[in-house]
Predict the 3D structure of the following.
Amino acid sequence: MTDVILEKVGKTYPNGYHAIPSVDLSIEEGEFIVLVGPSGCGKSTLLRMVAGLESISTGELRIRGERMNEKEPAERDIAMVFQNYALYPHMSVYDNMAYGLKNRGMAKNLIEEKVSDVAAMLGLTELLQRKPRQLSGGQRQRVAMGRAMVRDPKVFLFDEPLSNLDAKLRVQMRVEIRQLQRKLGTTTLYVTHDQVEAMTLADRLVVLNKGKAEQIGTPMDLYNKPATPFVAAFIGSPSMNLIDANLTEQGIKISEALTLPLSHQHRGGIVWGIRPEHLEVSDEHNADFALRILAVESLGAETLIHGKVETELGNGDPMVVRLSGPHLPDVNSLMWLTAPVLHWHLFDAKTQQRLRD
Amino acid sequence: MTVTFPQKGLPWLLLLPQLLVTAIFFLWPAEQALEQAFYQEDAFGLSREFIGLENFAALFTDPLYYQSMLTTLVFSFSVAIVGMSLALLLAVMADRVIRGKLAYQTLLIWPYAVAPALAGVLWWILFDPSMGPIALWLKSAGVDWNHYLNGNQAMILVVIASTWKQISYNFLFFLAGLQAVPRSLIEAAAIDGASPFKRFWTIVFPLLSPTTFFLLVVNLVYAFFETFGVIDATTKGGPGQSTTTLVYKVFNDGFVGLDLGGSAAQSVVLMAIVGLMTVIQFRFIERKVQYS
Ligand SMILES: Nc1ncnc2c1ncn2[C@@H]1O[C@H](COP(=O)(O)OP(=O)(O)OP(=O)(O)O)[C@@H](O)[C@H]1O
Ligand SMILES: [Mg+2]
């Protein structure tokens, strides 16, 4: 069953800034949708429109078939976790969690039951009498989630809930959020600018660029078949190597001195892409091209090699290679590489759309 | 960082004007008052006689003195509560205004720039029973306004005249306090189903409590000690004793009643009150009133 529908939803701020031209998205019940994109692309704006904290300028929002545009936040049956948690500083953890239930006129013993259930689930039972300022960052994060969960809403909204935590805690909470969401089966809309978080959490991802949804799909869809160079560069770490090239009869002409053979009916300017992990080390005779090594980053489990494509005419485009395990090539030496055709991504330079293979 | 002066004399020289002002206008009169409180002086100041604590004894057995204390308390708390409530209301409204915000805020700061005596005269004219526009309007509305005869009305008048000026000050602090409340808290409360009214009383107002307490102390001190000009310009402490606050009584007994010893004893009591309030203010504001 479709739970949340955004139909041509757009936002123009009172100062005239056109933050979101038009977004279409339909979310299935229980689905975990992640909105991802660079800073300022309109993620929070979109989320806040769903929450009712920003008005919807154009289009329609429906939750369970009901139009929501004119409804107050409280009437939408959503719960939101804010980036700074927005815990009420003068209330205990218990009161923070109970506040929404009290406002809805729930009986006192029922509130107690609900709060203690959720507190137990999140390991907050010991902390119920504390004030937010007496909690660690991770504990505050949990309380914020608890406050959202006690109300048992139709939709969870998260706005970068993990960005104030340290790296280790972030990974831990990420797993926990995913497990909780699975367990509760609540439809979730989650905003982040961290693509790893996005990939690991999402059932489906929405990549936003300047207020437009560039692509909507499962993490693997986006990884394997990015629709635009923007998505290609955004999903995956390190980013896909993207090089401006020309598609000719001979193949992909990267520079005067380097053409990778390919037969394709498209002609003209393209963006050629290959992921760092898909480049393979080769030898002088079988290689497609050589890389002049500029820097080596050894991470133990993998090695990132930064360099420039080397041709007879000098150094060309920058490129990153990702190799598993430790490697220690000399800086400034040449590395011979093959780029398997199977892993190429081609985009039209003008329309920025993916070319059919 | 410390600044070192080449000569030892220069810092003292720079401090001298301030020290002189303090000595002439504060230390010397204070010392005089302390001394006088133990003497009885004749009306012309020609002779005086040491009488020990008699001035204080007379003071604390005088029902009029207690009457004046009560008047001061009623007056001060009225000024503080009325002034703070109105200022909070205005600040909440100003916080919502988007267009013309600056003009609105500037207008509200003006009253603060008007001298207290002038403010007093202004209200005295507006409420004058025979020709003041407000008094005439009240009369047409069926209220028999005459603060020269009616003690309660006189009290209302001095409260209005004193509050008016203080609203600007309170307003600025409340506005700053309101703007410091994180927007996401209000939004979270809205999602949690709290009406705007409820949001204010359960979230915003508790978070303002440090500001509120600070302003309460400041307003009480103001009403206690800085409203002489307003009272003198509007009611002169009357009718009867109905608007004679402790400070006004010092002036009245000393300069009108010419009981310099009694007046000095009252000043000493006031000094003690100032000291006490200063201690309270520092104690509590240092510790900050936390939302606990
Ligand atoms: N109240 C506002 N009035 C005008 N413009 C705004 C307002 N709020 C946000 N914007 C603009 O809208 C755009 C999108 O903002 P938004 O907060 O949605 O970005 P975001 O994707 O959440 O970014 P971040 O990752 O930094 O949080 C930005 O360019 C921002 O400057
Ligand atoms: Mg944001």
